[in-house]
């Protein structure tokens, strides 16, 4: 790993709404063990506006996590071109304005739920984070002293969400955070996430689940099979606040789903 993603050239963009994240023609080729080159990303251009919820969908291996990692400043070693800009500045290392919730369970097993959530505040240099209040907000009131092994998978996700909220970053990256959850728990977590991020935070959310993307996103970016490149950008104009059952009953849902599916089925 290195942090060698080149920066996007700074441009005057007075006529464009402020974007928190911009990728411009981001491309990456790595070398396989055999020495053969492997092109992972090709000319990926996208942006996330202030307060926007953007989902990224695409087939397995198309580079979705690689894109999130590049934004987070934890890039694969390889030949990069194009660039990443975070809050208008070149991105080379992790930016403290960004929180990152990865797919796997990252709760520290030796810390209670309360201590794990408090860690989110400590990581951001925030003292006085009310971990118990955040745990209550995500439905974990009464489990403050529980250790991760005493919580179900869904409860651990709630605790991780509370920890990200404790960081109070204005932008959150989420890599399939609910991918391993059962259907009902996943829907509960989606509702909880929408409530908690509101319209202030910007979110870049990777998922395989097209219904999840439509439920959450203002815009869905479809990445095609490797080398990953943007093949479609789909605005989602469903009214907010959104509820899963209302979303899937909306006539626009089928149209959106079919458009996404037509890009992804092979
Ligand atoms: N450390 C690495 N070294 C070399 N190639 C890698 C490395 N990590 C990932 N890759 C390759 O980069 C490509 C993109 O991987 P990435 O994890 O970004 O895809 P993804 O779209 O997130 O996949 P999934 O949906 O299955 O999680 C894959 O083809 C993978 O084989």
From TrEMBL:
Keyword field contains ATP-binding: yes
Keyword list, A-Z: ATP-binding, Nucleotide-binding, Transport
SMART domains in UniProt: AAA
Entry protein name: NitT/TauT family transport system ATP-binding protein
Highest classification ranks of the organism: Bacteria, Bacillati, Actinomycetota, Actinomycetes, Streptosporangiales
Domain of life per record: Bacteria
Boundaries of every ABC transporter domain copy: 21-250
Organism: Sinosporangium album
Entry's Gene Ontology molecular function annotations: ATP binding; ATP hydrolysis activity
């Amino acid at each position: 790993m290195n942090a060698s993603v080149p920066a996007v050239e700074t441009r005057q963009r007075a006529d464009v709404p402020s974007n928190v994240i911009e990728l411009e023609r981001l491309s990456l080729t790595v070398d396989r063990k055999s020495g053969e080159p492997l092109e992972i990303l090709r000319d990926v251009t996208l942006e996330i506006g202030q307060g926007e919820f953007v989902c990224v969908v695409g087939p397995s291996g198309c580079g979705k996590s690689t894109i999130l990692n590049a934004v987070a400043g934890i890039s694969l070693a390889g030949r990069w071109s194009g660039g990443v800009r975070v809050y208008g500045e070149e991105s080379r290392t992790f930016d403290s304005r960004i929180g990152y919730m990865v797919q796997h369970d990252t709760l520290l097993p030796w810390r209670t739920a309360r201590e794990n959530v408090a860690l989110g505040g400590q990581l951001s240099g925030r003292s006085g984070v009310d971990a118990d209040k955040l745990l209550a907000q995500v439905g974990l009131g009464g489990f403050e002293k529980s250790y991760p092994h005493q919580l179900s998978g869904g409860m651990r996700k709630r605790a991780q969400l509370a920890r990200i909220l404790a960081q109070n970053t204005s932008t959150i990256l989420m890599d399939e955070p609910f991918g391993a959850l059962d259907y009902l728990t996943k829907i509960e977590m989606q509702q909880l996430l929408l409530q908690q991020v509101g319209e202030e935070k910007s979110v870049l959310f990777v998922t395989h689940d097209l219904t999840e993307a439509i439920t959450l996103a203002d815009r869905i970016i479809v990445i095609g099979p490797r080398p990953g490149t943007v093949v479609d950008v789909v605005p989602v104009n469903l009214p907010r606040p959104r509820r899963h059952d209302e979303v899937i009953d909306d006539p626009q849902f089928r149209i959106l789903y079919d458009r996404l599916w037509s890009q992804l089925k092979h």
